[in-house]
Every structure is written in C-alpha cells, then in structure tokens.
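From the methods appendix. Each design record in this collection lists the tokenized structure first, followed by the designed amino acid sequence. Records were kept in a plain field format so they could be parsed without special tools. The example shown here is representative of the layout used throughout.

RECORD:
FOLD TOKENS (121 positions):
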C-alpha cells in the first residue's frame, strides 16, 4: 500500500493520541531495547510532531492500533467503547485498555501537579 496522504484532522488527532499514550506507557513500564516508531502508511513526522521510541511489543500494538484506526469504517467515528465493530480483539484489546488506563491516570496526575504549581506559584 502506498503512503497515505489524506488524513483528516480527526484521524490526525486520534493517531497523535494513540502514539502519545503508548509511548508514555512504554517509557514508564518497559525496559530493554527500544526503537523509534515508524509506520509505513503514514508520514508520522508530519502528524505526531514528536518521535517516540518503543519496545517491540509496543511497536506491534501501535502498528495494529494505527492500522485499525485508518481502516475504521465509521465516519464520523464514535467512541471505540460504544462501537459495534470492535476492531480490537484478544490480547490487543486487553493491552490497549491497560495502556489507556495507565497513561490516562498518569496525565491526570501530572495535570494536577501542574495545577498545584500554578496555585503555589
Ligand atoms: Zn513497550
């Protein structure tokens, strides 16, 4: 498949979120060899604006997630949780849920911390 150039603003945002969440999760939970994530169907540099290094497991999860996002038949896309297509299966489903939960909490915690600094400063 050729490099996809037509990416909507919504897709772009979802892709960025996915990369950021998995990247954060991997950074905090996985040791070992990591490599910058690349995805052959997209020009990630133009979309993500930041490079994320992930382990082989997270590379697979991200590749899967991005592929599914691009293949999503719903436009406009609704919340994945409420979707009847449910493109995440088995281990990927459990994994992405864990990633979203961890990174979501992590960001909330850090957001609060920044807010606290704001009040103290
Ligand atoms: Zn990882």
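DESIGN:
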């Amino acid at each position: 498949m050729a490099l996809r150039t037509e990416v909507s603003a919504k897709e772009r945002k979802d892709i960025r979120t996915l990369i950021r969440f998995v990247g954060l999760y991997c950074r905090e939970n996985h040791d070992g060899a990591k490599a910058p994530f690349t995805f052959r169907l997209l020009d990630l540099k133009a979309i993500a604006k930041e490079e994320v290094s992930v382990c082989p497991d997270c590379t697979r999860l991200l590749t899967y997630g991005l592929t599914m996002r691009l293949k999503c038949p719903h436009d406009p896309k609704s919340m994945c949780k409420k979707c009847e297509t449910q493109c995440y299966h088995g281990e990927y489903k459990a994994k992405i849920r864990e990633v979203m939960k961890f990174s979501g909490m992590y960001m909330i915690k850090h957001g609060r911390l920044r807010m606290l600094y704001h009040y103290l400063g």
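APPENDIX NOTE: Residues 9-120 form one domain.
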